[in-house]
Amino acid sequence: MKVRLAIVGAGLTGCELALQLAARGVEALLITPDSATIARQHDHKPAILPLDSRLVQFPLMDRSGAARAAISATPAITLLEDWVCGLDPGPPIALHTRSGQVIQAEQAVLAVGSFLGAVLHQDGEHRSQGREGEPSDDQLLLRLSALGVPLERHHASRPAGPSWHAYLVEYWRIKPAGLDGYRVRAVPGLWAAGACRGAERYWDAVDEGRELAELLASSRELA
Fold first, then answer.
1. For residue 193, which of 35, 6, 14 has the smallest C-alpha distance?
2. Model-wide pTM > 0.85
3. How far is 206 from 199, CA to CA, in rounded Å?
4. How many helices (H) and strands (E) does the chain have?
5. Which CATH superfamily is domain 2-113+175-222 in?
6. 60 by DSSP, 3-state: which?
7. Kind and range of the H or E element at 21?
8. CA distances from 187 to 21, 65, 178 (A)
9. Average of per-residue pLDDT values in the chain
């Protein structure tokens, strides 16, 4: 499969990016392991998002379902349910998926959130997964490291509440030294946004999707 732009990850950042690009007439392939969980947040109350966000228009209590319906109905966005487990530098960048596909993308965006090498610590147990049971992106993490992308360990936590347990999730993200704005220095044509780039609040993760859409839509790489 050959595409001009592939977005790896359909969390809040990836969905915002895809919708903002579509509004600017840019087509994108949006890749997620599970289309039922796109635009999902991991807190127990709805996130407040920027007013210029595309996602802010969706109902607070069903943002994931509304985003999935909107993306499915947008001709400029192709939603692919698969797992990206590796990449080779280009041009074009080759994204390798668990199903055996090789996607050749002129440009690619990492919007994989807090799942690079994720380890969940909860109730005395330590599991290789994200906060909602999503698998950790271990193979992609190893490939990025092999390509010379500098990475650092980070964590996010939440105290216990009335209907949920406390947790701490550790994950890897790209070091600032490995970035030129949203570009990943070690891999030409590769960009990053959201938690894997350093965003820690949902507001910031969504805003990065919007800002990167503006950059990509006006860049010569996609002209």
1. 14
2. yes
3. 9
4. 4, 13
5. FAD/NAD(P)-binding domain (3.50.50.60)
6. helix
7. helix 12-23
8. 22, 34, 10
9. 88
Domain coordinates of the chain in residue numbers? 2-113+175-222
**Digit-coded pLDDT (tens) for 135-165:** 888 999 999 999 999 999 998 877 776 666 7
Taking a C-beta distance cutoff of 8 angstroms, is the pair 112, 140 a contact? yes
Q: What angle do CA 29, 31, 34 make, to 5 degrees?
A: 145
Tell me the pLDDT tens digit for each residue of 5-55.
Answer: 999 999 989 999 999 999 999 999 999 998 888 887 655 555 666 767 787
Contacts of 100 (CB under 8 A, 6+ apart): none
Structure tokens of 23?
Answer: 């509004």
pLDDT, residue 219, reads 83
Residue type, 215: L
Helix (H) or strand (E) holding 215: helix 202-218
Sign of CA dihedral 128, 28, 58, 48: positive
Which band of pLDDT confidence, cut at 50, 70 and 90, is reported for residue 120?
confident
DSSP β-bridge partners for residue 95: 87, 103
